[in-house]
Prior knowledge:
The protein has 176 residues and is an alpha+beta fold. It has helices spanning 46-60, 98-111, 140-149; strands at 2-3, 11-19, 33-38, 64-65, 72-76, 81-87, 90-95, 114-115, 122-123, 126-131, 134-138.
Amino acid sequence: MDVKSAFLNGVLEEEIYVEYPLGYEIEGVDDKFYHLKKALYGLKQAPSAWYSHIDSYFMSNNFSISNGEPTLYIKQSIDMFLTVVLYVDVLIFMGSDKALIEEFKKEMKGEFEMTNLGLLKFLFGIEVQQLEHGIFISQSKYTEVILKRFRMETYKPAPTPTTMGIKLRKKTPRRV
């Protein structure tokens, strides 16, 4: 799911004031400025404010954070689990129960303006196939792009990407 205008959802913790942009001054109110309560795109605090906002949302809804990955949230009970990965303004999630997933999507749409991107098919050059008997990932499309870039698409594949039968030895320095 994609969060629309994610960086505009962040509530600022510090006081930030901005002036009118150049060319938009109003005569007689040149000395006026705005006190920001929420983040704006381009504001260096915007990503942090957004992350703090969604992090506090997850924590208040019984998610825990993974020890190894600070953007991986886990919600589990005895018989169900839901995992959510946050990547900037995209939520990638999976769970053990369809009803739990549908409830999560409904809650997220209620809290944030979101677009459902459907089942995950590609992510960072990795192709994801979700089938009845499992989830399969591959980088075949990414590999094809790399082979085309280096004009190697007609080369034959090899099970081991090295020359077979070569014996490697430590090179001894040559004395002059």
